[in-house]
Backbone:
C-alpha cells in the first residue's frame, strides 16, 4: 500500500512538474508619484522604470506573477496645479526597488499553446514591497537626507492588455497604481518618530501612491500544460 501511494504521488508530482508554462522577460516604462509633494496628476509617467517579470501560468485564465522593478520617484511642487504647493516649493527624488508577487487574471482564455494568435485584457493584484530612502523637510523647506532606508508595503492595481506577437513572445502594455501603507516616500512623515510632530505636513490620513506605466516583453517556455488539473 505504501509503495502504491509513493508511485501515485511520484507520477502526479512529475506530471505537475512537466505540465507548466512559464514566462520570463523585461518591463520598461515610466513612473509618477501621487502624494503630498509634487504634481496631482494620477497618470503622468516621467521617470524611467526598468526591471524583470516572471509568470507561472496555471490556467488559460490566471497566472502567478513575480517582478522586480527599479525607478526614481520624483515630486516637484512647482509642477503642480495647486497654487498652495507652488508657493511652498518642495521637491524630492527617491530611488526605489520594488518586489511584487500576486495573481494575474485575464478576462477570457489566453492559451499560449494555441496555433492562433492570442490576446486579452488582464488584471493584476497582489502585494508589493518597495525599499526607499528616508528624508524629511525642515521648517524652512530644506531637504534633509536621513541616511536611512525603509520598506513600504502596498497593493498593486494593474490593468493591461497582452498579445502573442510570435510563437514564444508575449507583448503587453499596462498601467499599474500602487497604494502603499506608508506616508514616508515623499518625506511628509519622517521615519524618525521623534521628529514627526515637528516636521510632518500634508494630509496624514492619506498614504502615498505611485504609478508604473509601461510595456512587458516576455518569452514563454515549458511543456504544454494540462489545464484540466487546475
Residues:
Amino acid at each position: 500500500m505504501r509503495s502504491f501511494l509513493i508511485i501515485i504521488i511520484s507520477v502526479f508530482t512529475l506530471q505537475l512538474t512537466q505540465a507548466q508554462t512559464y514566462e520570463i522577460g523585461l518591463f520598461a516604462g515610466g513612473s509618477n508619484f501621487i502624494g503630498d509633494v509634487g504634481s496631482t496628476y494620477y497618470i503622468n509617467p516621467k521617470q524611467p522604470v526598468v526591471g524583470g517579470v516572471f509568470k507561472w501560468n496555471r490556467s488559460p485564465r490566471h497566472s502567478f506573477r513575480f517582478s522586480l522593478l527599479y525607478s526614481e520617484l520624483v515630486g516637484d511642487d512647482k509642477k503642480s496645479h495647486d497654487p498652495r504647493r507652488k508657493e511652498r516649493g518642495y521637491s524630492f527624488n527617491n530611488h526605489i526597488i520594488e518586489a511584487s508577487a500576486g495573481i494575474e487574471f485575464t478576462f477570457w482564455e489566453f492559451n499560449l499553446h494555441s496555433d492562433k494568435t492570442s490576446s486579452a485584457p488582464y488584471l493584476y493584484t497582489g502585494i508589493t514591497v518597495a525599499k526607499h530612502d528616508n528624508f524629511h523637510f525642515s521648517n524652512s523647506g530644506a531637504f534633509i537626507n536621513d541616511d536611512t532606508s525603509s520598506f513600504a508595503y502596498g497593493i498593486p492595481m494593474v490593468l493591461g492588455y497582452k498579445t502573442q506577437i510570435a510563437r514564444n513572445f508575449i507583448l503587453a502594455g499596462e498601467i499599474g497604481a500602487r497604494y502603499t501603507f506608508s506616508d514616508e516616500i515623499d518625506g511628509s512623515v519622517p521615519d524618525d518618530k521623534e521628529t514627526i510632530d515637528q516636521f510632518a505636513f500634508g494630509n496624514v490620513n492619506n498614504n502615498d501612491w505611485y504609478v508604473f506605466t509601461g510595456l512587458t516583453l516576455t518569452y514563454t517556455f515549458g511543456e504544454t500544460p494540462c489545464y484540466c488539473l487546475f
Observations:
- The CA atoms of residues 57 and 162 lie 14 Å apart.
- The two ends are 27 Å apart (CA to CA).
- Residues 1-20 have pLDDT under 50 and may be disordered.
- The helical segments are 2-18, 83-88, 196-199.
